[in-house]
Amino acid sequence: MFRHLKSYRWQISAVIFLTLAGILLELLLPTLMANVVDNGIVNGNIPYIIKTGLWMIVAALVAVVITVGVSYFASKTAQGFGRDVRKSLFVQVEDFSLHAFDKIGPASLITRSTNDVKIVQDVLNMVLRMMTRAPLMLVGGIILAVSRDPGLSLVFLGALPVLVLMIFIISRKAIPLFVSLQKKTDRLNLIVRENLTGVRVVRAFNKVDFEKQRFNQANADFRDTGIKVNQLMAVLFPVMMIIMNFTNIAIVWFGAIRIDEGIMQVGNLMAFLQYAMMILMSLVMLSMGFIMIPRAQASVKRINEVLDMDKEIKDPPTAKTSESHGQVEFRDVTFRYEGAEKPVLHHLSFQANPGETTAIIGSTGTGKSTLLKLIPRFYDVEEGAVLIDGVDVREMSQTDLRQKIGYVPQKATLFSGSIAENLQFGKEEATEDEMKEALEIAQASDFIFKQEEGLAAKVEQGGANFSGGQKQRLSIARALIRKPEIYLFDDSFSALDYKTDAKLRASLSRVQGESTIIMVAQRVSTVIQADQIIVLNDGEIAGIGTHDELLADNDIYREIAASQGIGVEGA
Q1: CB 388 within 8 A of CB 396
Q2: pLDDT band of 360, cuts 50, 70, 90
Q3: Where in 99-226 does DSSP place strands (E)?
Q4: Which of 192, 250, 282, 525 has a CA-to-CA distance to 265 between 20 and 30 Å?
């Protein structure tokens, strides 16, 4: 994580320099006060008292200004560091393969990008302000206290080991608790996220009480772990204050004896007490750091798990470019998900040619959507190759590859903003006429331009203010506006009624030109006009042909068609 601090080295240097200057002034004050007592008050030297007092005021004011400067630079560094780490996390996550998303999970990624970064940021701020100050104050205080009275300094020999032992024991117990606390935060966020996104399902199945119980259990686990952490803190600080107060009593006791014996002056004892307080306060600050740093270490570990995760989908060192035709070929492709016992797809080989529509049909779980995701390299094949215009997609840059593709996912996803902003995901510089044309082809004009705002109409998060069919049509329009070489429709017509489905397919056939269309569908009526239909069964190709050919000689396709009321006579 330290690499994110390189750009703040000047601010960190300023914090260290100002901290050193401030501590020197603070260490000077007890010495000046001792001089006022021993040389001024005892001798009745009023001018000396006034002169030294003025120097004390100046030193105190300068120390205040320096402290403000330290706080400013420390806060600026910590906030900038937090921003940079969040940016690095976001960029890294954007480049994740879908395997990595599945491995960590969205809820944990959100926690790591927000809560964990905030913890590290706060601890960094504390380290810059306190952990740089405490060691300097500790060393300076010990040197000046020993110089005042080496004999009385032996009092620290009893107090320091006890404090150090307390810090060590509590830190050792705190680290596992902080790690556990972050995991319980993940669990809590996961449950909240599932309930917010699945609130309709929870209510529809009368599972509100069950979900409340699940949340309460996770919340109680989080609370109990948090209480244990705070109990450690509750033990630490009273014990430290007791040790500090008994140390003060011992210093005053033995100091009074030494004054009575004429070995020590009153001013020296007052200065010694202040140096003792500085030493003990620096130990308190160090102990706070040692308590908080383990929590930050747990967060840093979780952040680094994301930042250090190897990118499975990488651009080749020297990327190849393909001709602009859009031919897609699967050459003996086998694919399995990470951790799966057997492949999802087995030795697939077929071609999808420009100007043609290739449809993929089959029962649920046969790998239709997975097949489509291999083309834009959301996953990489285990064996074989996916080629575009004769070039393996793994040999192309991801930017060039995906620029050729207009992809409509199975679950229509819209982003908060306006209709126009969502369409510009497909083409950033799209004109209003291009947007209208894409919406018209996607059969979305009717419900968009009925609104007064038109293209400026608001889209809620996830497209919550649109129906499933409307979201699908907007997703299709977003892909159409790119006018790509390859269209990928992942069961993108499932929420449309038959009339809208037929109109949309007719519009697509008119504007297809030399583009390649590959569509996954459940309805036979959606694929009936396709140039070739690929029937998948258990991840293998069970047949390739037109509707009539498959209906005549493919049992699986005939069974699917019959289940939807389409037979030889119907065809």
Answers
A1: yes
A2: very high
A3: none
A4: 282
Token pair 């050919």 in the structure block, residue: 549
Amino acid, single-letter form, for residue 425: F
**518 contacts 388 by C-beta, under 8 angstroms:** no
pTM for the full model?
0.68
How many other C-beta atoms lie within 10 A of the C-beta of residue 316?
12
Phi and psi, residue 409, nearest 5°: -70, 165
- Start-to-end Cα distance in the chain: 64
Distance CA 346, CA 336 (A): 9
**Three-class SS state of 357:** strand
Q: Are 19 and 136 in contact (CB under 8 A)?
A: yes
Length of the chain: 571
Please report which confidence band the pLDDT of residue 330 belongs to, taking 50, 70 and 90 as the band edges.
very high
Give the residue, 42 or 80, on which the prediction is more confident: 80
pLDDT at residue 97 tops 50: yes
pLDDT reading at 46 higher than 80: yes
400-417 pLDDT tens trace: 888 888 888 888 888 888
Amino acid code (one letter) for 512: Q
Mean pLDDT confidence for 522-528: 83
Choose among 337, 393, 339: nearest CA to 369: 337
pLDDT at residue 451 is higher than 80: no
Who contacts 194 (Cβ-Cβ below 8 Å, separation ≥6)?
Answer: none
Q: Cβ-count burial of 211 within 10 angstroms (0-12 exposed, 13-18 middle, 19+ buried)?
A: middle
- What value does the CA radius of gyration of the chain take, rounded to a whole number of Å? 35
Task: Pick left, alpha or beta for residue 338 (phi over 0 → left; psi -120 to 50 → alpha; otherwise beta).
Answer: beta
**Residue labelled with tokens 């599972």:** 207
- The one-letter amino acid at 304: N
Residue 358, strand partner residues: 518, 532
